[in-house]
Amino acid sequence: ETGVTQTPRHLVMGMTNKKSLKCEQHLGHNAMYWYKQSAKKPLELMFVYSLEERVENNSVPSRFSPECPNSSHLFLHLHTLQPEDSALYLCASSQGLDNEQFFGPGTRLTVL
Amino acid sequence: GQNIDQPTEMTATEGAIVQINCTYQTSGFNGLFWYQQHAGEAPTFLSYNVLDGLEEKGRFSSFLSRSKGYSYLLLKELQMKDSASYLCAVRDGDYKLSFGAGTTVTVRA
């Protein structure tokens, strides 16, 4: 595997379900990010981890819970989501917070 | 807050040139990025400008004017594979990237 991978690529869940999105980067980077991309809207930064510590929580509802167990892995735990949370969730990584970010292919999430 | 504007859609013919403009008003500035995103795929890095002027990379060039809060991405010798969404993103004084909504470019034969 190379670059940034995300699983699953597609996820359909009910509002009462609990699920997790997984991101793995194979680039040796030390910063990881979660973004939300809704149709026709700008990418919204959700969370930033640098050296496995959260440095940004961009006013995201508590039904989204990130976890960064090590510098290569990032999770987004989901529970009691709303239909408006349906979107493409993109993970990215970078070497340091100053450098270009490399994106994964995203997880297309649909909340019924 | 951050305000980044770019046109929603542009259409051009194969072999032509297209210029995608981006204007921004941000609370700090520490560089401007352009990303390309094909439908259903990850955004991929195209260019980075932090100083005024033109950066050229093959068929793609990016220009920045910090005093005007303005950038453009120039795509030359358009190919069908250039049909994609192009995202302008500004980094603030720290590290946060704020994105525009993207410009969908359609290349016609």
List the helices and strands and how they pair.
The complex is a heterodimer of chains A (112) and B (109).
Chain A: E1 4-7, E2 10-13, E3 18-25, E4 31-37, E5 44-50, E6 53-57, E7 64-70, E8 73-79, E9 87-94, E10 102-103, E11 107-111
Parallel strand pairs in A: 2-11
Antiparallel strand pairs in A: 1-3, 3-8, 4-5, 4-9, 5-6, 7-8, 9-10, 9-11
Chain B: E1 3-5, E2 9-13, E3 18-25, E4 32-37, E5 44-49, E6 53-57, E7 60-65, E8 70-75, E9 84-91, E10 97-99, E11 103-108
Parallel strand pairs in B: 2-11
Antiparallel strand pairs in B: 1-3, 3-8, 4-5, 4-9, 6-7, 7-8, 9-10, 9-11
Describe what you observe in this structure.
The complex is a heterodimer of chains A (about 110) and B (about 110). Chain A is mostly beta strands and about 110 residues long. Chain A has strands at about 5, 10-15, 20-25, 30-35, 45-50, 55, 65-70, 75-80, 85-95, 100-105, 105-110. In chain A, the strands form 2 sheets. In chain A, strands 2, 4, 5, 6, 9, 10 and 11 form a 7-stranded mixed β-sheet that branches. In chain A, strand 7 (about 65-70) and strand 8 (about 75-80) form a beta hairpin. Chain A starts with a strand and ends with a strand. The mean pLDDT of chain A is about 95. By secondary structure, chain B is mainly beta. In chain B, strands 2, 4, 5, 9, 10 and 11 form a 6-stranded mixed β-sheet that branches. In chain B, strand 9 and strand 10 form a beta hairpin. Chain B is globular, with a radius of gyration of 13 Å. The interface of A and B includes residues 43, 56, 98, 100 and 104 of A.
